[in-house]
Amino acid sequence: MDLRVNDLVWAKMKGYPAWPARISEPKKGHKRLHHYVYFFGTNNYAWILDEHISHHSQELVDAALQKKNVSSPLKAAVEEIVAEAKLNPPSVARQLALKYRKLKEVRSKLKAPKKKFFGVPTLQVHKKGRVRADPYEFDDESSSLPRVPHVPPTTQHIGFIGLGFMGRHIVRRLLETGHHVTVWNRFQERCDEMARRGALRAACPADVIAACDLTFCCVAGPEASKAVLFSHDGVLKGLERARKAGSPDKGYVELTTLDDATSQEIGEAVRFQGGRYLEAQMGYSTREHAQSGMLVVLAAGDPKLFKECETCFHAAVHTAYWVGSEAGPAAQLGLACSAVSGAVCAAVGECLALADRMAVKRKDLLDIAAVAGFKCALVEDKFLQPRQFLSGPSVSIRNQQKHLHLALSLAQSVSHPTHVLATANEMYKQARSQGYDRRDASAVYLATKF
Questions:
Q1: Are 317 and 160 in contact (CB under 8 A)?
Q2: SUPFAM superfamilies, from UniProt (predicted)?
Q3: H or E segment at 87?
Q4: What b-and-e string marks burial along 284-303, b requiring 16 or more CB atoms within 10 Å of the CB?
């Protein structure tokens, strides 16, 4: 049932008639399938099952008062909820939502029952049923690492290049789960911060490769990734030294958002020096995902290396999808995911700017859109909270525009028209020109408004 804090309802407790109440915010925790309600007239609180709660309506008021021997406390409670409803009537959008929900309930009762099927677990996705492969046997179908409660840390030494916002949070989670990590970043103070948490510091990327079995790279973009790889003391130099010292087979995992051509170029260079390569694109991943360990990784490349990264992915990532054994598809899929987010934010921002011109409240527009079937967590998170436009970004305007630019370049390489993405890209470029570079991507709304 669609219930929110402060909604007026009627709740039924065992041994009592349905009673006027209000949904309240619990002081401690939540109970599954229950709501914490305040009872009018008695000033008591209780956890009530979802199925024993009904939205307040005049029909329920009439039904309660028409009964014989209505108690005085119930009459007082009815008077309180009626007065409360007059003082704080629900918004137009909320009224529409409740009517729409009731209509759906009536329709569902009239429909013939459908056959039920067993659901597929969300953390183990396959296009078709198949026998689980051995640990290092992969095919080219999409699959994911199974999610288990606890995975002991690997005994391999982990390297990490790049300590931006995403990188720092990933390294913190690796350290918290007992991994041995060596870090490098061009800003020394960020290495110092990780060193205080237990990481080792390296003087250059080549030293990270030399000291570690698996090395992750998470930098600003394709150009930064190439600089780390091809510089004088870069990744390739470290792989070359390891190969000559009789320690080939180093693993290199690229977390940076890349186009497929750059990823393939990096993969070829790494393999040429005897290393193994895995592209692990984070698709549409926000700062909140990094902080809460809810990142989604799309991986392609060396299948054995993907398996070796399991403990690292379990430490810092919610789900890791295996896309294929050739580098490129994961980068393409990651850019497509980010492009969807960018296009949606641009379209919603433009519509909200139009609503402002018509003096329509932003919340009412989004509520009505949700009632009509366009209920999107991304939109609610970014546009229902005005602070998003001004505070620290989830995904910045600058990064979103860079991802759209890469997606457009990908489309250009295969001669595919992308009219909507091209327009959205121009909107983000306009927002950047107006000084919104470091604002959240939802600030594209401000660029179209003013």
A1: no
A2: 6-phosphogluconate dehydrogenase C-terminal domain-like, NAD(P)-binding Rossmann-fold domains, Tudor/PWWP/MBT
A3: helix 72-87
A4: bbbbebbeebebbbbbbbbb
